[in-house]
Amino acid sequence: MNFKNAIIGLVTFLFISCENSNNNPLVGAWELEGSSWNGEKMELLEPRMVKVFTDKYVIFNYYESNLVENDTLLAAAYGEYTFINGTLNEVIKNHTRSENIGNEYSIDVEMDSDGKKYTQTVKFNDEFTLVETWKRIE
Hints:
The protein is mainly beta. It has a single domain, classed as Beta Barrel (Lipocalin), CATH 2.40.128.490. Helix content is 14%, strand content 55%. The protein is built from one helix and nine strands. An eight-stranded antiparallel β-barrel has the order 1-3-4-5-6-7-8-9. A hairpin with a 2-residue loop joins strand 5 and strand 6. It is globular and about 40 Å long. 9% of the residues are buried.
């Protein structure tokens, strides 16, 4: 009887574990809603920046001033990521600026309770802090 209960418990645990591993709240398409750099609100350019997560990959666009002298260019990047216990770890695999390829970022993420928005905080060398709020668009 105990062996039967142990098997039922193990199967239930495996089923729940597999089910939960597919419930990544980041998977989908997101649009930048707000951004600040060291506490200073940043102006958002139109069209808004977009970030798309699959189960393993992230692709995003952003405006990069100084990419072209006296101009602002829409840049793009993609990479692989993991999301565990509120920490998003990104490894850049391709980027408009080739010197960013291979960069790794550890990002604190706070997801809203309804899963329609999240705020991410990135610290650069303990000197600069970027805070972004993203809203789900798909």
